[in-house]
């Protein structure tokens, strides 16, 4: 991982520029029961023959390309990886219905999900929503939550549809770290802030609404499906408090824990190499099954379980 010392390094890096020039952003139209059509944007990299890929769901502040380091590394290692930008939805059920229809369009019966913050909450919601069909085989959660009450200090969810862009951005940015921080963490924040600036007012309003509208996860619905869960535990300061992270861990007593000492809110950018090893270890358990996220190859030759040290807690 290249050491970063100045703001904007990630956006101007050769790695990111190579990603943008070699992997295209696709659009997929999804038709809903009411006749409305919504456009999902996504990156899809890796072997197309894989029918149970890993899908990345960004936080409220992010776009699909914030996971470019995972898309490049995992796709090049033989995994099929998708990262999505979701269109405007105002309820969790609407989002789940839209995501389900997107998977239908892509002809994917099952998926593995990696969600950060809001993306993690929506991943859990989708597992609940598709309990009967069991479309979710595993979930990786980073800086996520099980109840939108975690954001009770934010303004009421009903106000965002009418809020100016600058007000919503200010609400988001105040949760970002201030003062002297690790250069790579600082660069990850700068990169995500730049992506935040690309979101429209309606997109921001939709995401903040999904982040705060009353809703909670019923963990037993995931546990009853025996969904394999890994929790990425960032040990330094993040926007999600230790108390909330502990609540998530208690809900999934059989989850694997991936400890990362530092990395901030966006460890997928600031500690990508460490995180990518954990992801490979997690996906390795599905090798040789119809739920494999990668080509049929010897996972053991690519990554050792001991190299990541994921704990079962």
Distance linking N and C termini: 29 Å
The coarse silhouette is: globular
Multimeric organization = single chain
Structural class: alpha/beta
Biggest sheet statistics: 9 strands, mixed
**Portion of residues within helices:** 25-40%
Query: So how many helices?
Result: 14
Strand order in the sheet with the most strands: 1-2-4-3-5-6-7-8-9
Explained architecture:
It is a single chain. With 313 residues, the protein is an alpha/beta fold. The chain contains 14 helices and nine strands. The protein has a nine-stranded mixed beta sheet, with helices on both faces. Helix 4 packs across helix 5. It is globular, with a radius of gyration of 18 Å. The chain starts with 8 loop residues before the first helix and ends with a strand. The model is unreliable at 1-7 and 297-309 (pLDDT under 50).
Q: What would the keywords be for this entry?
A:
313 residues, alpha/beta, nine-stranded mixed β-sheet, 9 strands
